[in-house]
Amino acid sequence: MLKEKLLAMLSYENALFDKGLHFIGGVDEVGRGPLAGPVAAACVVLPAGFSVIGIDDSKKLSAKRRKEMFAVIVSEALAYGVGMVSPQVIDEVNILNATKMAMADAVRAADGMLAERTAPEEKRIEHLLVDGVALPEASIHGTAITKGDTKSVSIAAASIVAKVVRDRLMDELDSIYPGYAFARNKGYGTELHYAGLRKLGPSPVHRKTFLKNF
Predict the structure, then answer these.
(1) Within a domain: 134
(2) Longest CA–CA separation in the chain, Å
(3) Is the residue at 57 inside a domain?
């Protein structure tokens, strides 16, 4: 069953490979909903013939499994990149625009890594598969796929990379700003998080425009 799922999730990539493309970037974000911390995005370029079973939407995987898949993805990917946009910028431009900024940054980072790793005569990212939204900010032709992290292995891989990197940052922020349980909630609005807000007020990494009901 897992093999069949992988084959189904490779359909978008294989259709593009069949057209003669070589470098396809999957793009996804994490952290649109939390009260604190950045929004993060990743872009992952997987090789043709990628056949690692178990890649899936990061939300469907345990933290342990995400870390295992993260190690496999960064080892086997042709390139990858991560972009993050701070709470301050989220407050300034709104979460949708901040998400697109993070995605575009991730694409640029992956494209730069691909340029470093490939021979000069080879192309860089030729097509993007993006979860949910069009991304003209990246200046690369792409396809927006609704619930793409369950339909495209490249997007699912990007969701895992973005999730693991952002979670690590939230663990670090928990030690810098104790009292909000960031290591446990990753910035989402849990009971412990709201208790910390009521006791301490917002920290410098809180999204002020998200704090309506504490």
Answers:
(1) yes
(2) 59
(3) yes
Per-residue pLDDT tens over the stretch 43-85: 999 999 898 888 887 888 899 999 999 999 999 999 999 999 9
* pLDDT tops 90 at residue 122: no
User: What's 131's domain CATH number?
Assistant: 3.30.420.10
List the alpha helices (DSSP H) in 31-86: 63-76
Distance CA 166, CA 66 (A): 12
> Rounded to whole angstroms, how far apart are CA atoms 182 and 188?
8
**In the block, residue with structure tokens 């295992």:** 68
Question: Average pLDDT of 146-169?
Answer: 97
Structural domain count of the chain: 1
30 is in which domain, residue-wise? 2-165
Q: Are strands 39-45 and 24-30 parallel, antiparallel or unpaired?
A: antiparallel
| Burial of 17 from C-beta contacts in 10 A (0-12 / 13-18 / 19+) | middle
**How many CA atoms does the CB half-sphere of 208 hold within 13 Å?**
6
In a domain, 191, yes or no: no
Closest by alpha carbon to 27, among 79, 64, 63? 79
Q: Of 29, 47, 35, which is closest to residue 186 (Cα–Cα)?
A: 35
- How many Å separate Cα 132 from the centre of its chain? 12
In total, the chain counts a number of residues equal to 214
Residue where the block lists tokens 């490939």: 118
Interval 94-108: pLDDT, tens: 999 999 999 999 999
